[in-house]
Design brief:
Number of strands: 0
Number of domains: 1
Structural class: mainly alpha
Strand content: under 5%
Radius of gyration: 20 Å
Order of helices and strands: HHHHHHHHHHHHHHH
C-alpha cells in the first residue's frame, strides 16, 4: 500500500471517532464549554504523555516545535472545540451537527485555493452553493414556520464558525509536515490550560454526575484524544481531499446516533438539508476518483509469474 494511502486510512480513523462526539457532548449535560474543553483535552495530553514515557522519549523534545505550528494548532483546537461545544449547548443538536459538518466541503474548497496544483473548478463552486443552501434551509426553516429564530442565532453562528476554523487548520497543517504527530499532545495540553483559565474567568464549576463522567472520559480518550493524533498524521501525509470526502458520511452517523438517542427528529427539512450539504460536498470533491484510472486497473491483463 502506498504511504499516502496508508496515511489517509489512518486519518480516517478520526472520522469514525468524531461520529460519536455530538452524542457524547450532549451526554455531558450542564458541564459548561470551557470546563469541558479543559477536562477532555487534559485527558488527551495525559494520553500523549503516557505514550512518551512508554517509548522513553523526552516531553521537551516533542514540545520544541515551530512557533507557527503552535499558533495554528492551539488556535484550531481551542477555537474549534469551544465554538462547537457552545453551539451544542445552546442550539438544537441535529441542526448544529449539520452546520458543523460544512467543514469537509470547506476542506475541499480551501485545498483548491491554498494548495498548489489544485485549482478551484466549477464543481467546487456548485458544491459550495449546495452546502450553503442546506445551511440556509436549517437556519431559516421551512413551510409555514419559515422564520429565523433569534434564540438559536448564536448557536448557529458558532457552528458555522467552528467549521471554518477546522477546515483552515486541517489544510494549513500540511505546511508543518516535519512536525511529528506526537507533538499534538503538547498542543492539547496548551489548549487545556487556555480553557481552564477561561473557565475560571467566565464560568462556574459544575460537578459532573457519574454518567457524565463516563461521557467526558470517552470524549477525552476517543473523539478528543486519539482522533487528533491520527487526523494530524492523515492531513500531513495523506490525501487531504480524500479525507474530506470520507468525512461526508460523518453527519449521517452522528445525526443517526442523536436521533436514536431521542435527541432529534428526522424531519423532511433535516433530510433535505443533509442531502444538500453532503451532496454538495461530494460534488465539490468529484475529481478525487479517476474513473478512467480505475477502469484501466480492473481491465488490465493479469500476468502470472
Amino acid at each position: 500500500m502506498p504511504p499516502s494511502s496508508r496515511a489517509t486510512l489512518i486519518g480516517a480513523i478520526a472520522l469514525l471517532l468524531w461520529s460519536c462526539q455530538a452524542l457524547l457532548t450532549r451526554l455531558t449535560g450542564a458541564v459548561p464549554p470551557f470546563q469541558l474543553v479543559a477536562m477532555t483535552f487534559s485527558l488527551a495530553a495525559l494520553l500523549a504523555l503516557g505514550r512518551w514515557r512508554i517509548r522513553g522519549e523526552s516531553p521537551l523534545t516533542r514540545l520544541r516545535q515551530p512557533v507557527g505550528a503552535w499558533a495554528l494548532s492551539v488556535t484550531g483546537l481551542f477555537g474549534y472545540h469551544f465554538l462547537y461545544f457552545t453551539a451544542l449547548k445552546i442550539a438544537p443538536p441535529v441542526e448544529t451537527t449539520l452546520l458543523n459538518y460544512l467543514w469537509p466541503l470547506l476542506i475541499v474548497l480551501f485545498s483548491a485555493l491554498l494548495v498548489r496544483d489544485e485549482p478551484l473548478r466549477p464543481r467546487h463552486i456548485a458544491g459550495a452553493l449546495a452546502g450553503l443552501g442546506g445551511a440556509a434551509l436549517l437556519v431559516l426553516g421551512g413551510g409555514q414556520n419559515a422564520a429565523f429564530d433569534p434564540a438559536f442565532a448564536l448557536g448557529y453562528a458558532s457552528a458555522v464558525a467552528c467549521s471554518i476554523i477546522w477546515a483552515l487548520y486541517s489544510v494549513l497543517n500540511r505546511r508543518y509536515r516535519n512536525v511529528p504527530s506526537d507533538a499534538v499532545g503538547g498542543f492539547c495540553g496548551a489548549t487545556a490550560i487556555l480553557a481552564l483559565i477561561s473557565h475560571l474567568l467566565f464560568e462556574s464549576w459544575v460537578w459532573p454526575q457519574p454518567g457524565q463522567w463516563v461521557a467526558i472520559l470517552a470524549l477525552g480518550l476517543g473523539p478528543l484524544g486519539a482522533a487528533f493524533f491520527v487526523w494530524d498524521y492523515g492531513c500531513k501525509h495523506g490525501n487531504i481531499r480524500a479525507l474530506g470526502t470520507l468525512a461526508y458520511g460523518g453527519p449521517l452517523v452522528s445525526i443517526g446516533l442523536l436521533i436514536l438517542h431521542g435527541d432529534g427528529e428526522l424531519t423532511e427539512q433535516v433530510a433535505l438539508a443533509a442531502l444538500l450539504i453532503i451532496g454538495g460536498a461530494a460534488l465539490g470533491a468529484g475529481d478525487l476518483v479517476s474513473w478512467r484510472g480505475l477502469r484501466a486497473r480492473w481491465t488490465r491483463p493479469k500476468t502470472h509469474a
